[in-house]
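Long-time lurker, first post. I've been practising inverse folding by hand and with some scripts of my own, and I keep getting stuck on stretches where the structure tokens seem ambiguous. Below is the full token string for one chain I'm working on. Before anyone asks, I'm not after the true native sequence, just a reasonable design that respects the backbone. If someone could post their per-position residues I'd love to compare against what I wrote down in my notebook.
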């Protein structure tokens, strides 16, 4: 079975979620990573890295018009899938990935399985595993691959693994002009890093019950804004109304895999640490030296977050003000 993956790139290169989906595609038993599609302009510099994951073919698109919308991407991808008829098309479970495949599935009437944590190929069907009931149970769904099947893979479940010594056939695809009249592009507004999707965040500042109150939790937002991090929290922070459910980290919230997470006033209950187990570096701040969070932390500060955070914010501000421009 041919497996296609849809990749995301930005000004900083290939996104970590795309590296994960390239790795995940190789775990589907009986499947072959046939095509990697990069829907981003002027990204030839990423080809070498994509090749390291072993796709047989890499599709690159021309530069998209600034006015292109999600509907345009979906129409472009859907027509390509209809023409080539792969068995399975994967994207990362991100805002872009899920939105793109949802639109494509609806427009072209293709089966779609979102937020999968495993995919396997049986004799006559594909088997998709999906968490449900607050992620306490696994549901297994099947689809007979009589036509292309679309699915998104949850970010943070696999360790990125590249393959070496492989060459891919690189093909450039012509990008059509804007065709959709359903949505009109007005302007691009950069996302606030504090509210970016937690599954895509590189740095997260998370607060728990130790923040004391909604006013105390504002220190989390202040630190996050200062260092360009996303804001998250524990179930207790959500129960207290300090964050929405979309900002909760844990079994009943989001699974995250940032490069760094700063945990503030969070004791480290199992249901919370489960959601951050794939974080590369964990920094914990808690006044209880015996808090479970310190058992998994790479670095820790024993102290009251209401005293530690203001001092930390002050030191960072001082560092920014004293930093000399390059060449000065």
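-- Answer (accepted) --
I ran through it position by position. Result:
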């Amino acid at each position: 079975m041919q497996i296609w993956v849809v990749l995301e790139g930005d000004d900083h290169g290939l996104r970590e979620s795309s590296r994960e989906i390239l790795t995940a595609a190789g775990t589907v038993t009986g499947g072959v990573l046939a095509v990697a599609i990069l829907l981003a302009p002027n990204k030839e510099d990423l080809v070498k890295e994509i090749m390291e994951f072993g796709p047989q073919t890499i599709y690159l698109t021309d530069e998209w018009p600034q006015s292109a919308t999600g509907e345009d991407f979906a129409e472009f991808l859907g027509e390509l899938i209809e023409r080539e008829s792969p068995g399975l098309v994967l994207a990362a479970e991100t805002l872009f990935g899920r939105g793109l495949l949802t639109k494509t599935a609806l427009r072209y009437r293709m089966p779609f399985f979102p937020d999968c944590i495993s995919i396997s190929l049986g004799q006559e069907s594909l088997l998709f595993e999906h968490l449900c009931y607050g992620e306490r149970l696994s549901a297994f769904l099947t689809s007979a691959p009589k036509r292309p099947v679309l699915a998104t893979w949850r970010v943070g479940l696999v360790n990125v693994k590249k393959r070496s010594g492989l060459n891919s056939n690189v093909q450039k695809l012509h990008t059509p002009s804007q065709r959709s009249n359903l949505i009109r592009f007005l302007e691009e507004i950069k996302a606030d890093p504090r509210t970016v999707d937690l599954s895509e965040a590189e740095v997260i500042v998370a607060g728990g019950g130790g923040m004391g109150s909604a006013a105390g939790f504002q220190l989390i937002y202040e630190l996050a804004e200062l260092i360009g991090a996303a804001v998250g929290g524990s179930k207790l922070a959500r129960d207290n109304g300090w964050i929405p459910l979309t900002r909760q980290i844990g079994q009943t919230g989001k699974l995250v895999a940032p490069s760094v997470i700063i945990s503030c006033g969070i004791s480290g209950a199992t249901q919370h640490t489960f959601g951050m187990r794939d974080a590369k570096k964990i920094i914990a701040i808690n006044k209880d030296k015996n808090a479970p969070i310190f058992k998994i932390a790479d670095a820790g500060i024993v102290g009251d977050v209401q005293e530690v955070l203001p001092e930390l914010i002050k030191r960072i501000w001082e560092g920014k003000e004293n930093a000399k421009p390059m060449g000065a």
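A couple of notes from the structure itself: The first helix runs from residue 16 to 25. The mean pLDDT is 84. Happy to go over any region you disagree with.
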